[in-house]
Amino acid sequence: MKIGCHISVGKGLEHAARRAVELGAESFQVFTKNPRGLKPKKLDREDAAKGVAVMQEHEITLVCHTPYITNLSTPKPDLQEVTIRSILEDLNIAEAYGAVGAVVHCGKHVGEGEEYGTRRMVETLDLILEQYDGPVKLLLENTAGQGSELGLTIPSLMEIRGATRYPEKIGFCFDTCHSFAAGQWSLETFEQLVEQMKSSGYLEHLVAIHFNDSKAPFASQKDRHEKIGKGEIGSEALAKFLTADSFEHLPVVLETPVDDEQEYAEEIVYLHQLRQAGQLS
Ligand SMILES: [Zn+2]
Ligand SMILES: [Zn+2]
Predict the structure, then answer these.
(1) How far, in Å, is the centroid of ligand 1 from the Cα of 149?
(2) Which residue, of 12, 108, 183, 243, is most buried by count of CB atoms within 10 Å of its CB?
(3) pLDDT confidence of residue 281
(4) CA 151, CA 143: separation in Å to the nearest integer?
(5) Average pLDDT for residues 89-114, to the nearest whole number?
(6) What are the distances in angstroms from CA 158 to CA 153, 161, 232?
(7) Has residue 62 got a pLDDT over 90?
(8) What domains, with CATH codes, occur in the chain?
(9) How far is the CA of 267 from the centre of ligand 2 (A)?
């Protein structure tokens, strides 16, 4: 298991990778570009290559995250076009960064209904993936179900992947906070969640875990991250992820709220402690 955290890439990938080393992170996540915009980003290939070298030297795994504001289900043709162009660019940046995948949030049906939203999301995914043949997987992240978000459940995510023409180019990123807020798991139902991941085939395509506690209660459908052990999920339930064999090979990335990235160093140590305690018991 590679425990790490989200890190700012504002000063370049090399800087972010060195930061990961300082924080004791064995994996990390960066945004491909400004998360609140879709403005194209000029890729600094030299910086990317230096960053990749640091990651290789320290055996660090990178996950990329695409901007939040893309909506794969948008009914508007002009917005869909911008989204396709933006995510294609994200995949190419993620490839230059040597990332295992580029995380994208599931679509929002914005009042058009779930059926329409799902169909439109599959269509947009196809239009993106027919233009990308590189090694980076597009990782669908499960949502908390805020507003009209799609993709709360394991079966719905598998259905979307299966409906595209390029399922082999799609993997998954599982967010512990979103899934809890969507009412999909808790301390009592962790084993059922893992069983569902296995029996549906989801687990085979799971590439990364977003590891967050939740400020909002179970099934609240609110996406509010909290530090591990300080939220509604709790450390006992979250520790189960850290010791489950099924997730042993995956990067586990913290996206918990911090005032300063430096705080992640302590939280990463805490995760290792939880993991050890769990393995002993
Ligand atoms: Zn997440
Ligand atoms: Zn979230």
Answers:
(1) 14
(2) 108
(3) 67
(4) 6
(5) 96
(6) 9, 5, 27
(7) yes
(8) 2-280 (3.20.20.150)
(9) 18
